Amino acid sequence: MRFRHPDGSTVHLAYCTNVHPAETLDGVLAQLRDHCEPVRRRLGRDRLGIGLWLAKDAARALVTDPAALRDLRCELERRGLEVVTLNGFPYEGFGSDEVKYRVYKPDWADPERLEHTAALARVLAGLLPDDVTEGSISTLPLAWRTAYDDGRAETARTALRTLAERLDALEDLTGRSVRVALEPEPGCVVETTRDAIAPLTAVGHDRIGICVDTCHLATSFEDPDTALDDLAQAGVPVIKSQLSAALHAEQPHRPEVREALAAFAEPRFLHQTRTATAAGLHGTDDLDEALTGDALPDTGPWRSHFHVPLHAAPAAPLTSTLPVLTSVLTRLVGGPHPLTRHLEVETYTWQALPPELRPRGRAQLADGIAAELTLARDLLTDLGLKELP
């Protein structure tokens, strides 16, 4: 979906396909048929943006076979779909029964992360629509925090500098500009936007910036205005934003709130949980840890890294951090010029919701994704953007 900003520029809205498991190119093509095109039809639009997730095997198939890349581009066009952004965070196995800590491997100290991301950039340059010259890729925020020393930090910085050089060369070759964005996430080396400033300024290249995920920002209790002001002051570009909402519990000391939260503790994804106190931010790596004993102070609200559907907040006594998303979006695109032109709805946890909230079959999932995009569209038009055909 495309929108005209009052300054005349185009802002792109997509939904991320990491909600649909696929490890191979055939799986990606099936996604387009079974999920993406039905969502577009529900929205009544001729064109729908998708934030494509390509696992390592699918990416390698595309980057080594020009015919396969051309075929994918043709299939996108045939189904009324377009790609201006990729989700390069998960490497493989994101549809596995248990993802948890595996999603952080390989990290940016591993040469394979550089090679995979460079391959994604070449693929994206070949998928961009004819009238679009700028693409974006979100990626792992360096590494999970453990086993990350000064040596690995320098290796990661060197890899990002090398990537920037390759992206420069890619634009010289193709005329397409691809930028890569670190996506801060709780528990990682770069947990917050402020954590991103030092490593990104050390890399020192405007092709490498930040992806503001509004669920992650909310989970870490970051103030949106402060976060975006800090990035602007440091000269760190917001390359992309993922529109997502975290799980919020206002009174976690109450037994009924604990019981409601327990329904969201599940074995597939990691749900880092945080609370802000006068002494600072406290957290656990997963929601079930927070619910065990006194692992986390419960005198103030808890937020958990669980991407809940944007249009359907959990039932009381829980809610979502949608107001944080709205605040961030207002800053990103509500001013005289957009701070980023790539927006991506990223609720990948539909099948991890409590059983009674999960979609039953493809049709209900498509309905839910379309409802999320409708909400995002309405937020954008309320900010003065005009939806384009």
Characterization of the model:
The protein is of the alpha/beta class and 389 residues long. 40% of the residues lie in helices and 20% in strands. It has helices at residues 25-43, 56-64, 66-78, 111-127, 150-174, 193-203, 214-219, 224-234, 255-262, 287-290, 322-333, 362-382, and strands spanning 2-4, 10-16, 48-53, 81-87, 134-139, 177-182, 208-213, 238-243, 245-249, 273-277, 280-284, 302-308, 318-320, 342-345, 386-387. The longest helix has 25 residues, at 150-174. It is globular and about 60 Å long. The chain starts with a strand and ends with a strand. The mean pLDDT is 97.
Strand content: 15-25%
Order of helices and strands: EEHEHHEHEHEHEHHEEHEEHEEHEHE
Major beta sheet summary? 8 strands, parallel, barrel
Give the radius of gyration: 20 Å
Helix fraction, binned, reads 40-55%
- List low-pLDDT spans: none
- The total count of strands amounts to 15
Quickly count the helices: 12
Task: Give me the secondary-structure category.
Answer: alpha/beta
Indicate the overall shape.
Answer: globular
Oligomer: single chain
| N-end to C-end Cα span | 8 Å
Strands side by side in the biggest sheet:
2-3-4-5-6-7-8-14
Rounded mean pLDDT score? 97
